Structures are given as C-alpha cells and as structure tokens.
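Sequence in, structure out. First:
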Amino acid sequence: MHATIPTLPQGVHYLMHSGFSRPPIPQLLGQISGRILATTIAGAIKLGFGFLVLGGLDDAQSRKAAAFFENNFVMRDPSGIRYYQGKFLIRTKQPDDDMNVYICFCPDPDDLYLDTPFGKHLNPLAIIKTEALDQAEADAIENDPERIDLVICFRDIPSILGLVQRPDVDAVQLLLENLVQITGNFGHLFKFGAIGKNVQSAIAHP
C-alpha cells in the first residue's frame, strides 16, 4: 500500500464496483476464472461509457452526452483542444489469476467524432478502449510510463470480487486491509476518481 495515498477516490471504487457487479459476475462468484472476469469487466466498462455518450435522436440526450464528454475528457489551453488519454492497468498480484484489464481513455482523438449527414457527432466506440490482457502482455507494460499511467493491483481475485459482495465498503478500508496497491502517476488516480464520480451522477440522474 502506498503510504502517500490517504484514500482511494470513491469514484474509482464506484467504477470498479459497477463493472464487477454486472451479469454474469455475481452468479459466478467462487468459480469464475481471472480471464473471464477480466473480459467481462472490460466489456461492461466499455459499454457503460459508450451508453453515456450516445446522443441518439433526442436533442436533450445529445446535449447531455456532449456535456458529459466535454466535462470529463476535453482540455482547453492556449495551444488548443486536447483530450484526456489516461492509461490504466487493473490486475492482481497473483500471476496464476491471469486477471488483467487495460483501460485507455480517448485512445485515438481522430476517431472521437463521426461525420454524418447531420453534422459531427461523438463516436461512442472511441471514448474508451478496454481489453483483457494475458499475464505476459500485462507484465510487459506495467512498468512502462509511456504505456501505463497508473496500476491498480488487487491482492487476488477474491479481493476484487469483494467489491460485489461488499457494495458499501469504504474505499479507505480497501487500502487499510492491504487489498489493493496503487503505483504510477497519482494525478491520474484522482482524475480517474473524478470521472467515476461523474459516471455515478450521470447514471443516478438519467
């Protein structure tokens, strides 16, 4: 546990609990493999973000989707517009678990908008890239600051599944119980947490 981190931002915990609690994970507690868990989490998170920025035909929903994207991923400075491109790795300490999820926000800015007969619209498939990696792939990028900004490493698969079984667990408790370690650029930890809180708010107030 990294001593300089007093708390795991609640938004991070929400994002992870949200992904882990999607079907079929709760029904498979105790028998799910790490690779299946990683694949399910990656898919659930990608679909969740895609849904939040899907404008559809309703003007109000399109404005809400655009506002969510603007507030979370667009950065404006004197040099122009940039997009948040944080890269994360969620995994466990146990090599035999084979539980590794790669997350990258806005991986290719050129793909973020689609040209349509009605103008440019957000591409919901380009907001986030998620992928289940095998152990060798995760090992190869874990300590590469060019490819990963932050690593969230759980003790083992039961520690991750505990987020499903303990939906109200305090995030600080995860750290105090030594169930998770965090390494990398900690600025991205709080950005990830802020995005998670905004996802939580968007889902709670559709």
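Second:
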Amino acid sequence: MRDGSASWAWWLLAAAVGVHLFMMGSLFWGYLDALFDNSHSLAKGVDFFSIYEGGRNALENRPLYHFDATDTSATPDHNPYRYLPSLAYVVAVPLNALPAWSAYWLWVSVNEVLLVLNAFLTWRVGRCTTWAVVAAAMWFVFTPFYVEMYVGQFSFLMATLLLVAGIGLAQARELPGGVAWAVSVVSKSSSALLAPVVARARWWRSIALAAGLLLANGLYYLARPRDFEYFLWLNFHQIFDVGLLDFQPRAGDLRYFVDPDQRFLQFSAGEHGLLALFRNSYLALDSTATDLPGGISIVIVVLVLGISLTATFLPRRPDFVALFAIWTAAFFLTYTAWEHHYVMLLPALALLVALRPAHRPIVLATFIIVALPTPYWLINLATDTSLPPANALVTVQESWPAWAVVLHHAVKPIPVLVLWTVLVAGQVGHRFGTDDGVKNSADRIS
C-alpha cells in the first residue's frame, strides 16, 4: 500500500534540502569549517588536488605516485596520489583539461547531481512510500558530505556506485548491481569487501569483470613494480605494520616519512574508524607511545571479517540488504576511515530505512549520531585549544585530555559497531529480516 502522500515526510524532505543548502554555503563562506578536523586543519580541495596531480603525472608520463609537495605550479597544497591507476587515467586525466580550481568546483557540482540522483533512487526503490521519502531525506543532512566536498574527495562517487550495487542485491538484478560493484572496486577499492556478498549472490560474471578490471590495472604495475610496493604500503601500512609489509619509502616519497616522529603520523583527530579509536585511545593514555602495539589491529580485522563471513555463508536464506550493510560497515571497523568516508555508509543506512522496517530504530539512531558533527569543536572550545603551527610535528589532540580523545573517536565507529552486531546477529540467528529480506525479487521497482 502506498502512503507516500504523508505530508510530514515531505516537509521533512523539504527541511533536509534547506539544511543541505545551508551546509553547502559554508564551502564559500567557511562558517562550518571549525566543526570538523579536516575543514579546520586542512586546505580546501587538498584531496581533490592529490587526485588531480595523479592525472597530471599520467599526462606528463611520470609515475602516478610521484610526489613533490613543493610543486605548486598546477595545484595548491596536495597529498600523494594513493589509488589504482584507473582512477587517474579515467577521471583525473579528463579533469586536467580545466585549471585546478575550476576542476574542483566542477567536481563539487557533479557530486551535487549525484546526491539528488541517489535520493531519487532511494525513493524509487522504497516504492515511493513515506519511509522512502524519509530515506531520501537522509542524503541531504549528512555532515560528512560537507567534509567530503571541502577536501574534494571521491568517496561520494563510491557511495553512488555502492547504492546501485545495493539496489541490485536487494532486487536480485546483477546487470546494474554487479557492474556498479565491479567499477567501484577499481575506483577506490574499499568495496572489494563486498566480494563475499557478491559471491553469495552467485554473481560470477560480476566477479570476473572486477577481476578483469583489476588485471588491467596490474599492467601498469608490471611496468612500474616500485609503484605497486608503494601503493600497498601507502594504503595498508597501518594495519600490517608488524613486518608483513617491509616496504620503506625513500626520502622524498612523502613529506612526513623522513621525520623520526612517528607519533605525529598516527595521532590524528581526523580518523574515525574502529582501529583509529583503539590507536588514538592508546596514544592518548601513553604520551610516549608512537603507535598501537603490533598485532592488535590484525586481531580486530580478523575477528570482524571472520564474523562477517559467518553471517554471510551460514544462513540458508540470507537477507542481501542486511549483508550489504554488514560488509559496508565492516570497512569502518577494519580500515583507516576518515570522517568524509562515512558517506559510503549512507547507501546501506538509506536502503535499510527504506526496505527493512524491523531495523529502522537502530538504523535511524546510528544515522543521527553519524550524521552529526563529532565533538571536535566543543572539545576545542572547552579546552581552549587552537591549531598548532602548520609545520609543527604535533596534533591538536596533544592538548586534549585523554577522555576527550576517546570520546571524539568513539562517536562514529561505536554506533556502526552496534549496528553491525545487530545485523550479524539477525543473519546468524535468523531473528531479523527473514520474512522481508530473502524474497529479493519481491522488492523490484514497480
């Protein structure tokens, strides 16, 4: 039965759009910047310019991962390129047709279009019901999206691809869902975590497509093996920094790695995954420590992945929407997750609200907490903390009491951990989602 005419939901959507416009206005005037670590401490567009520089390296036939922090001839402050070659050649190279700042604002505009598209798709997949309108409204009031646009990240492109993949899983449609997933794997690669769900759905052609796209990227690394070592180290050293990856950057590979102060590299107010909670809490309690003791991160990763695999393959009639959410959440429990990365959680939250009534209370509670800013601004205000000098090897958290560091890093991963636990328990125990979750063909858009 359609109930999409309920006026309260449409008023909620209108209010959400208003909040979104207010939020985006800060990109021009900066009135929200102090609420978030990245927008407070980093230069605007820094991540976008890092990817833009990857395209520039490709055009000038340099290694994609070449990095020179002093070269500001094309872009302002930027970080090293850290993604697969495909993103540089397919997306960053065309963006180099424009000057850096023009390309940045074009990318912001593209993401705004994707945001409206995602809200529309969410509304449609929810059969245009009242809760589908609520789920659509969720896209407009998610503060990590502001951080995403401020730094110019590409995580929201991933969020769009993940939404299409999630809808495909919900409706048992491999063509759109599987292709979107395969493309996402070579865009930012974090969605490779969804491979067990794709295998459980028997989307073998999609897995073959993803493998083929990865092999195509491998051709680049065959020609530049040093770049492959660098790619692995740059993306996985915080998890496997116990001797499994012994790649050592050369002087100049990264501006910070030539300095012996490793604490500065690990103690960051911008990270908000479960591993960051453990690491930053440990460093806050021990001012002489430089990192989390070796092996703890691997234990956490193995536990989360092992339990998620059990929830995926143990049930005889799995709920693919729940599995999609479980493995999307697993990223934030097992990897380095910055605040803007949480836009990649939005597809799972929106689909659960639109399609799974039994999960709505816990999902909405998780959404509200994750959608709000962290206590970053309040902690700085309460402790009278200001940003350290630009080149100082010390972070803002060094001025915070230990309880503030723990609270700041707990507010996002803990709700995600709770949601992940509930969904896993539902799949393993067949207590949630069975009746409305396994008949995926019934969820097709009418």
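Remark: Residues 7-220+298-382+405-443 form one domain.
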